[in-house]
Specification:
Protein name: protein-glutamate O-methyltransferase
Keywords: Methyltransferase, S-adenosyl-L-methionine, Transferase
Catalytic activity: L-glutamyl-[protein] + S-adenosyl-L-methionine = [protein]-L-glutamate 5-O-methyl ester + S-adenosyl-L-homocysteine
CATH superfamily of the largest domain: Vaccinia Virus protein VP39
Order of helices and strands: HHHHHEHEHEHEEHEEHEEE
Strand order of the largest sheet: 6-2-1-7-8-10-9
Helix content: 25-40%
Distance between the termini: 37 Å
Domain CheR-type methyltransferase: 17-287
Pfam families: CheR, CheR_N
CATH class of the largest domain: Alpha Beta
CATH topology of the largest domain: Rossmann fold
CATH architecture of the largest domain: 3-Layer(aba) Sandwich
Strand content: 15-25%
Radius of gyration: 20 Å
């Protein structure tokens, strides 16, 4: 899928390309927050005003728009859907890193043999720029070897997925990966790629990446059926109704006995689910 063009400047050309003239008003924020919810299911309260303003300000300058009301008009008038994709990318891209919340990866390594399913399918349901999916791949390749596992990574952000597909990361992040994996599965860039690293071909080939909205899927790309799901640090952006919908959809594509992992700051409390708690932030799919 071709990524959106962030240099697009189809706004009125008689406007000077200077700073945004006005602050984000309460009315504009509410309209934009409603659009975020409509497109993604993510709820944004007033605490997100600085984030919204900051992430959109550069876009307004590129489009030569002087305030956020003009951007709302531009966004809602774009019938191609391209600006919607850019808007979602800007608002939903989150910070991530390799082996975030390491207890989940220790659990994964300990329980692989008990699942007895090959190839083992693992879904990274909010993959962002790929660090989570490749962290999973490092563990699986080490424990299972080639051709005995597959990872699917999905995200609503097309730009994030495009970056994940490159599997190319700055050396500043290499210390996030345990030395044991670094020495076996990482490749350091040379010449024009100096200052970056990538994963070995055997890992990259078994990690597939695609765009997908958690709020409206009924099946996974290619009919993928995950034995393990990493649904981490995404439900914190949803209201209770949206959480219920996402968890129900996730359960519908998993087999009985499958494992669901959520962020340590998240909970399924208050939801009617087909999951039972195994340990903190780890659940088993039940009938």
């Amino acid at each position: 899928m071709r990524g959106p063009d962030r240099t697009k400047t189809e706004a009125p050309l008689n406007r000077p390309n200077n700073i945004v003239d006005a602050a984000l008003t309460a009315k504009e924020f509410k309209t934009l927050a409603d659009l975020v919810f409509h497109y993604t299911g993510i709820k944004m309260d007033d605490r997100k005003v600085p984030l919204m303003a900051g992430r959109l300000a550069r876009r307004l300058r590129l489009l030569r728009l002087s305030n956020y009301s003009e951007y709302i008009d531009y966004l809602t008038a774009d019938s191609s859907g391209e600006e919607r994709e850019i808007f979602v990318d800007l608002i939903t891209t989150h910070v991530t890193h390799f082996f975030r919340e390491p207890e989940h990866f220790k659990f994964l390594a300990r329980h692989l043999n008990s699942l007895q399913r090959y190839p083992l399918n693992v879904w990274s349901a909010a993959v962002s720029t790929g660090e989570e999916a490749y962290s999973i791949g490092l563990v699986l390749q080490d424990r299972l070897g080639s051709s005995r596992w597959q990872v699917l990574g999905t995200d609503i952000s097309a730009e994030s997925v495009a970056r994940a597909r490159t599997a190319l990361y700055p050396m500043t992040g290499i210390d996030q990966i345990p030395e044991y994996y670094r020495s076996r599965f990482l490749l350091k860039g040379r010449d024009s790629m100096e200052g970056y690293f990538t994963l070995s071909r055997e890992i990259r080939d078994q990690v597939k990446l695609d765009t997908m909205n958690l709020m409206d899927f009924t099946s996974l790309p290619g009919g993928f059926r995950p034995d393990i799901v990493f649904l981490r640090n995404v439900m914190i952006y949803f209201g209770q109704e949206e959480k219920q919908s996402v968890v129900d959809r996730v359960a519908s594509v998993m087999p009985e006995g499958g494992i669901l992992m959520i962020g340590h700051s998240e909970s399924l409390n208050g939801l009617k689910t087909r999951f039972k708690l195994v340990q903190t932030a780890v659940y088993e799919r039940i009938s």
